Amino acid sequence: MGIEPMGLRESKKQETRQLISDQATRLFIENGFEATTIAEIAVAARVAKKTVTNYFARKEDLAFDHREEFVEGLARTVSGRAEGESALVALRREFLDGVERHDPVIGFSGEVFARMIADSPTLLARLREMHDQREAALAELLATETRAAPDDITPRAAAAQLGGVHRVLFQQILELTLDGWSNQRIAETVTVSAQRGFDLLTGSLADYAVK
């Protein structure tokens, strides 16, 4: 018997993961997150219950299948900033690009999905936790990039400000989505909000963490 190539094996794993996530989201939307069980998701995806938990350690992560990208996104953007670019400029640019793309990671999830989140205390709590994790990841990256001393509060304070703007903008996108606005209309409004929000940080962070 031949050995299955690693690329094919990984591709099958990704397909299984996506299938589980898609079926879970469908059930969450139809029945509510709180009422849906892991066993029901396993049946819908035609996999064992253990397979579901192997791919998703927490039930909430079945709904937030972009969790890793969300949590690591700000730090990744700052890490990849251009020469001479500050953390603030890089994050502003990337966020506005995301608005143009109607990127689901920054909140463009559609009204049905947004309602699923808004109706679940568990998902709202997980979302807050993800915001906190994203901010912590950014603070750690900034501390490394600026060679900050262990007792220097600057990276954490900067991350709190930068993460705070993203948190407020995500919430605005969510609220406008729940109000039934189109993605295009949301994008136009949030672009103005983003410019204002990032402008408020210019005085303190314009020259911080310049590459």
Automatic annotation (TrEMBL):
It comes from Streptomyces decoyicus. The keyword Lipoprotein does not apply. Residues 37-56 bind DNA. This is TetR/AcrR family transcriptional regulator. The keyword Transcription applies. InterPro entries: Homeodomain-like_sf, HTH-type_TetR-like_transc_reg, HTH_TetR, MftR_C. SUPFAM superfamilies: Homeodomain-like. Residues 14-74 form the HTH tetR-type domain. Keywords: DNA-binding, Transcription, Transcription regulation. It comes from the Bacteria. Signal peptide: none annotated.
